[in-house]
Design goal:
The chain has helices at about 20-35, 45-50, 60-75, 85-90, 100-110, 120-125, 125-130, 135-145, 150-160, 260-275, 315-320, 330-345, 410-415, 420-435, 445-450, 455, 460-465, 480-490, and strands at about 215, 220-230, 235-240, 245-250, 285-295, 300-310, 350, 360-365, 365-370, 370, 380-385, 390-395. The strands form four sheets. The protein has a six-stranded mixed beta sheet, covered by helices on one side. The chain is about 40% helix and about 15% strand. The protein has three domains: about 1-175, no CATH class; about 195-310, Phosphorylase Kinase, domain 1 (2-Layer Sandwich), CATH 3.30.200.20; about 315-490, Transferase(Phosphotransferase), domain 1 (Orthogonal Bundle), CATH 1.10.510. By secondary structure, it is of the alpha+beta class. The longest helix is centred in the last third of the chain and has 20 residues, at about 330-345. Helix 5 runs parallel beside helix 8 (about 135-145). The protein starts with 18 loop residues before the first helix and ends with a helix.
């Protein structure tokens, strides 16, 4: 008879996943956000997604996927499941070997998002874990939510009010927890991977950021809602209390917060972006440390963050997901405008390294959370370039890991020193994504696609094809020249 898999250790979820598995988790979250925004969409299946992971990582990945699935199902009322349903279907653990942190995650989501779970019931359902620290962990979960002023009634009401917004974060319940500097919370994988919104004060510091380098106080920022997710960080819309100003806060994920390499990369991004003073480049205002929170393994960590301009509007990736396509003329004007922004970066001696649909936001007019955001020019949207996490000095090898493969130049994938031609390659790939009915994938032959649609896509294809040469020396070497040539095609 086959023996059940061994119980996961308390640090199972904390162990580092490979880049491929990390990407699977992010794609699973994205699939859920899209499903949560459409009543007719199918929810992503944990079992199917977990099978894509290498055998050695399958337990850790499955634990992460279940945590995501639990929260989305409870938060949006999409057929919430008892934990036993996952155990029976996935066969990864039995009732007796289920990781305690996963049990706590199920309890937290049910309690927070409108259920009425009983601590005694959970302990009775999982007796093997009840003899350990599970009872104390469940009690601590209740205490955490009580401090936040959260009740089942208030959260079910909140869920109804945000049913149309899959990226909306939790209600802050300011009235019931006034004076608590960490009033914004998020329960997403709270007991498994942690989240900066649960921040608590601590004397522990993150490697690479000291008081001199971190003038901003994490307690000055009220995190309101999640607006972006990356491989190593999350981005939140937040209110800076001292200025009553809406900002964006980019926070390193817990698993990377103690890695000097990732902390150094965040600092480098902040310092580089601070030198790029341009109205269509997201401005960075400072770095800091969110107060510490305890991970599932009991270790206290601090979470480095940087603050940026909040840009109101969808990204090009959002628009493409909604199958919004531009005419060749519209795409040409947009890419020409982006090329001039990129030229500003090049003149400062840097490359961007990750020009892709997710890193271009189409700024619009509006008011968010009661605060007016910067207005665009009269009569429309305006592209804004963001995310300089992979940027660096021209002439230095770029980083391909963490980038968006279909839009990365061949020399960047090979780890060669980069010139302006690398970003120009990305701009040309982006133009194709904007006009094509095809999803731009690494396997797609872009030059051949241009040849097939040359007559329909118009005169700009000549410049686009030149930008896609594998040999960087044959491409445009100046983004301003590329922009001027593209603009000429729209006036013919």
């Amino acid at each position: 008879m086959n023996k059940p898999p061994p119980a996961a250790s308390p640090t199972t979820a904390q162990a580092q996943l490979s880049a491929a598995s990390e990407q699977l988790v992010e794609q699973f979250e994205t699939a859920w956000r899209e499903a949560a925004g459409c009543h007719f969409a199918f929810e992503p299946d944990v079992a199917a997604w977990s099978r894509q992971a290498p055998i050695a990582e399958r337990q850790r990945l499955t634990l992460e996927l279940i945590a995501v699935d639990l929260e989305f199902r409870w938060r949006y009322g999409r057929h919430p499941r008892r934990l036993e349903a996952y155990l029976a279907r996935l066969l990864t653990w039995t009732r007796d070997t289920a990781p305690p942190e996963l049990i706590v995650e199920a309890y937290r989501n049910e309690l927070r998002w409108g259920g009425s779970p009983s601590r005694a019931d959970y302990l009775a359902r999982f007796p093997a874990q009840a003899s350990g620290e599970l009872a104390e962990a469940l009690l601590q979960t209740e205490a955490d939510l009580l401090v936040e002023g959260i009740t089942a009634t208030s959260m079910s009401t909140h869920r109804a009010s945000i049913a149309g917004d899959p990226c909306e974060a939790r209600s802050t319940h300011r009235a019931s927890i006034a004076g608590d500097p960490c009033e914004a919370r998020s329960t997403h994988r709270a007991s498994i991977a942690g989240d900066p919104c649960e921040a608590r004060s601590s004397r522990i510091r993150s490697p690479g950021i000291g008081t001199a380098a971190a003038p901003l106080c994490g307690e000055d920022f009220l995190l309101r809602r999640l607006i972006g997710v990356g491989g190593a960080s999350r981005v939140y819309a937040a209110v800076q209390r001292s200025l009553d100003k809406l900002v964006a806060v980019k926070v390193l994920r817990r698993r990377w917060a103690q890695e000097p390499r990732f902390v150094a990369q965040l600092l480098a991004e902040a310092r580089l972006a601070a030198q790029l003073d341009h109205p269509q480049i997201v401005g960075v205002h400072g770095v800091g440390l969110l107060p510490a929170t305890r991970s599932g393994s009991g270790h206290a960590v601090t979470l480095p963050f940087l603050t940026m301009d909040f840009v109101h509007g969808p990204s090009l990736r959002d628009q493409l997901r909604c199958r919004f396509r531009r005419s060749p003329e519209e795409a040409t004007r947009l890419i020409a405008e982006l090329a001039r922004i990129v030229h500003h970066v090049h003149r400062r001696g840097y490359f961007h390294g990750d020009i892709s649909p997710g890193n271009v936001i189409m700024r619009t007019q509006g008011v968010v959370d009661g605060l007016e955001v910067r207005r665009t020019r009269e009569g429309g949207e305006q592209p804004v370039l963001t995310d300089f996490g992979l940027s660096g000095p021209l002439g230095v090898a770029g980083k391909a890991i963490g980038g968006t493969p279909p839009f990365i130049a061949p020399e960047q994938l090979r780890g060669e020193p980069l010139t302006p031609a690398a970003d120009i390659y990305s701009l040309a790939s982006l133009w194709i994504a904007l006009v094509s009915e095809h999803n731009v994938q690494p396997s797609l032959d872009l030059p051949n696609l241009i040849r097939q649609h040359r007559s329909a896509w118009g005169p700009a294809t000549e410049m686009i094809q030149r930008c896609l040469y594998p040999d960087a020396s044959k491409r445009y070497d100046n983004a301003n020249t590329f922009a001027a040539d593209m603009e000429q095609t729209t006036t013919r």
